[in-house]
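RETRY 2/3 - previous attempt timed out on the joint model. Re-submitting the same 822-residue input unchanged.
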Amino acid sequence: MNIVVQKFGGTSVRNLECQRQVMQKVLRPYREGNKVIVVLSAMAGETNRLLGLAKEWSDNPDPAELDSMVSTGEQVSCALFAMLLKQQGVKARSVLGFQAPVETDCAFGKARIVNIDEKKLECLLNEHDVLVVAGFQGCDEQLRITTLGRGGSDTSAVALAAAIKADVCEIYTDVPGVFTTDPNMCSDARKIDRIAYDEMLEMASMGAKVLQIRSVEFAKKYNVTVHVRSTFSDELGTIVTQEDESMESVLVSGIAYDKDQARITLVSVTDTPGVSAQIFSPLADKRILVDMIVQNPSKDGKTDMTFTVPRADVDQTIRTLEELKYEIGFEELNSNLNVSKVSIIGVGMRNHSGVAARAFQSLADENINILMISTSEIKVTCLIDDKYTELAVRTLHNAFHLDGGEPLETL
Amino acid sequence: MNIVVQKFGGTSVRNLECQRQVMQKVLRPYREGNKVIVVLSAMAGETNRLLGLAKEWSDNPDPAELDSMVSTGEQVSCALFAMLLKQQGVKARSVLGFQAPVETDCAFGKARIVNIDEKKLECLLNEHDVLVVAGFQGCDEQLRITTLGRGGSDTSAVALAAAIKADVCEIYTDVPGVFTTDPNMCSDARKIDRIAYDEMLEMASMGAKVLQIRSVEFAKKYNVTVHVRSTFSDELGTIVTQEDESMESVLVSGIAYDKDQARITLVSVTDTPGVSAQIFSPLADKRILVDMIVQNPSKDGKTDMTFTVPRADVDQTIRTLEELKYEIGFEELNSNLNVSKVSIIGVGMRNHSGVAARAFQSLADENINILMISTSEIKVTCLIDDKYTELAVRTLHNAFHLDGGEPLETL
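RETRY 2/3 succeeded.
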């Protein structure tokens, strides 16, 4: 049987009218003879309402209880949506995390999917034409309810598509697809038709928040074709899939940015073996995500260590490191909150040199000073003063002809 | 191990302050070294909110989806309460219907408990000192969530107490216990210390809505001692238990009434064998609860058939019977909405004659006309004009000295 997985977020199911629109999306593949697995989030606002209640009850709510409570959001939206479908005469039912079952580890609040019983799912699909599956939730071995963390519904959808070998996993969102960059920042931004998993991972992690990053990892691992598209139109969106030759012929697929960054510099660190671990292990323990790291060449046994952290974690980062000042052995800690990251991303740059140089040159032409640089196989990231973010994005977008003009295939 | 089961309704858990009070009730047996199973309802208003949502979505919501949705009310209140307990350092956790598991049939919306796995419960009790169990819900063989119908949390509590052989099942409510009659109607009403299951069944079914009737049936069947008591004080309430000699020495234990009644009369019914079935089977099919039935002696092959139904079902009753007018063969259908039932209840009347006569006489002394009479072993019910309900209740309460004066042991 042909199976289509569709995922709709909280905004799409927030009230009866929206759910009726979603139903039309579901009925299309259904009427074409496909079985449909619909993955839903909680109605917009509901998860926050529940988290608010928990916070009123306890400063530090038990994570297992919190999951049991928060999971009711999807439980309600799925039941309501299944009611709508049944009223239309569709053989449908809701399926909760423990019913599918979506087995996870027991890391409440950020559980990872361990297994999805495709046999059980197949049975359910034999008896029903549409399954309305609660996203974001699963259950551990003890049948306790777990949740996958914010945005986990994307991961649920991709994992279900992988388990049942669906033809496609459609992720419906409020934008028409993945863009070459943020259209709010650059009016020339263009929808990308096809993008490789790795490119999408870089785009997502850099703040192009169309798809949850873990869901892309999952899609890549199980080779699930993901179609990111708009709830509000029938136009095709962006296909996220395996890298192919046509993708490699494009040097740069998109420009991502992240304004939520801060730079920390430890001045005159005593450069002994293991000092990096001494600095970064305590931060990792506190789950602070350190991103770009630059170590200056050592001079007289001293070096400067510069790195970026999310802006929200700056205070904790400073507190943590100041406490270890003598242990680590640095003289001074400087921080700069007014920085942002701008990246060019593309699998095509693997086989082409000169991409980074062109990026640096185009920024230089606009007098944008680059504070730090980091590169990977398919990405070049520059840290800049955040007041230049928009200018930098537009400049790079233009420099790599992402507005849909002549594609820049060679340098 | 000694196990205490406690059940708290929606009003008792409606906000943080109330849940803190409930916690004190739970901590008492806990500190005395007992294991405690706390059964909770949804926070007051939540179930209605959810039902309202469902009604907005569908005129006739799918019952299975409705159960999955409505059950979230208890899921939230239990998670919150478990958070409170854990914050106090109590080894506690919430347990949902499918986790216990409370196995039911699949009659969604009015499921019956089939089995409770006491082995699983024992395991949970070995690992935790307090289990916070979601009332009102269970799951069927397919792991679909079911609910037990309104007031089902009482049944959950008693069923859990039966399964785990708890020492007592405490049902906390907003009144101090079971009264000889409705204190709002009769200021002389007195709290009953001990009452037999059968008496309680008659009291409950007649509208003395302290305990859900099915929970009493359950308690009787499994011989669970139920203690109905107040959330707002530490005073003892009413023990509902097996009949004993002391109970039999009291002729009448209480006066119940039900104003929600209507009388239907079919005039000149052709009195052939099977006519009763012809009348009452279609009503039963529509789940209309026919209560008192009186058939006049037949005359010329014709009889009048009079019975009572809940007032809300009158329209449907009339519609159903009018459609079958020629099939059944009656001339006229009369209805009277202004009637109520008043009953005297007591296991003691089994061994004493004259109780009914005294009741009739005392009503007659007040010029209250009796429209219909029905009697059982432990109950005498009179249908009267509903404007006399209060007067009748007070008169009977007085006639049988229920105000706590000299007990009336012989006639």
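Chain B touches chain A at residues 16, 19, 50, 53-54, 56-62, 64-66, 68-69, 71-72, 75-76, 78-80, 82-84, 86-87, 93-94, 96, 98-99, 143-145 (CB under 8 Å). Closing ticket.
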